[in-house]
Each structure stands twice: as C-alpha cells, then as structure tokens.
Amino acid sequence: MGNMTSSAAASRVGSGALHIACIMDGNGRWAKRRGLPRTAGHTAGEEALATVVREAAQRDVGWLTVFGFSTENWVRPPAEVRHILGLHRKLFGRIEELNANNVRVNWIGRPFDEPGSRTPANVQKAIRQAIEDTKHNTGMVLTVAFDYGSRAEIVRAARHAAEFSPGGIAANLYDATLPPVDVLVRTSGESRISNFMLWQAAHARVYFTDCSWPDFGGRQLDEAIALARTHRA
Ligand code: FPP
Fold it and tell me: Which of 24, 57, 92, 227 is the most exposed place for a label (fewest CB within 10 A)?
C-alpha cells in the first residue's frame, strides 16, 4: 500500500483491508421474474448498491469497485440507458450517507475529454461533485467504473507508458493508486469476467453467486470476504 497517503492508511483497519470488485449482474432478470420492467430492476440494483456500500464500510473493506456502466452498455435501448444514467446521478447524490459512512467516492473510465467520450455533462458533473464532496473521508474508497472497459484502459496505459511516462502499465491505469483486487464478485449465475479490471484482478479470487444483484447483501458480502481471507491465509 505504498501509494496511500498516511492519513488514509491510518484510518483503515490494519493493513489487511480488502479490495472487492463487483460485476452487478441480473437486474433485468430480477425484474422480469416479478413482472416488472427492466428499469425497476436497475432501480432495485442501485438500492442494493447503497446497502452494500454501507455493509462493506462496516467490514474490513478498504476499496469497493463496482461496474456501473461499461463502454458496451451504450447500445442498450435509449430509455434504459437514460434510466441507468439517472441512477448514477442518484448514487452520486447520496452525499450525506457516504459522508456518514466515511466513504470517499472515486471514478474510473474513459476520460471525458477523450475522443469518443459519450458521458453526458450532467453525469460528469455528478461524478465530479461526489468526488469533491467526499474527498476528506478517510474510510472505504468506493470506485464506480462508468464508461469503463478494461482492454481500452490497458491499451491507453501502455501508450501513455511508452510516450510520456515511466512506470509501465500499472502506473498508467485510470487510477494507479487502486491496490490489486482481492476478490472479484459476479452475481446472477454468470461466470464471465466481461472486460472488468483485467489487470487489477489478475490474481484475484472469484466469487460467483446465483444471487441477483438486487438481492445481494451482507450475507453474500461475508462469503466473498471469507473467500478472500482463505486466499491470503
Ligand atoms: C446488469 O444488469 C447491470 C448493469 C447493466 C449495470 C447497471 C447497474 C445498476 C443500475 C446498479 C446500480 C449501480 C449504479 C452504479 C448506479 P442486467 O441489465 O445486465 O441484468 P440481466 O442480465 O438480468 O438482463
């Protein structure tokens, strides 16, 4: 953890704080089973995430990284994309809750000024505002991957490393301060990695569960943590 500031390090429980990364899958199927529109599944997914953030902040989790929106998700129907973007603004607006849990918001994804960036101005603003409003928190770091794709991240990092900066690929990722992922979670019975954190999760344990993301909570989090601890023992 050599790249953490000392104040942040001091606030985390021991040096064993984990990095958990989540692919939050199954919102659509969760909704379908209930006869609801897919958007209702995403709404429930955002609420589940708020719960998981709170639960993780109370455990020995130093970093929680979630796949909020992939570079491939833009092809979904416009109304669904609009709904998911609105949920990101909702999540980034939960400042009071995040501050109460001492959670610092962070973001990784295609830079807004890069050609081809599609992130609307209101989402950019929500991301910037949440980062600003939680920057003093010294507890868990919640990183939302938005307009994120891991291969694009690695290609960009390799180019940057070659052109401008020493330190290799690791030093040129979207956020070089993120430690390696200890456990990668994927919900809803899928067992694919889907272009998420390929570099950072190279040595991660993987926790696959049949549980849909809207049903994910403290019990599943404990199972994922137990898996990470087995790995470290
Ligand atoms: C997968 O469900 C989830 C996504 C496409 C990402 C969106 C996640 C949320 C809205 C949860 C809240 C998170 C944030 C950061 C606001 P799916 O539609 O692929 O489900 P399916 O495979 O059952 O169709």
Answer: 227
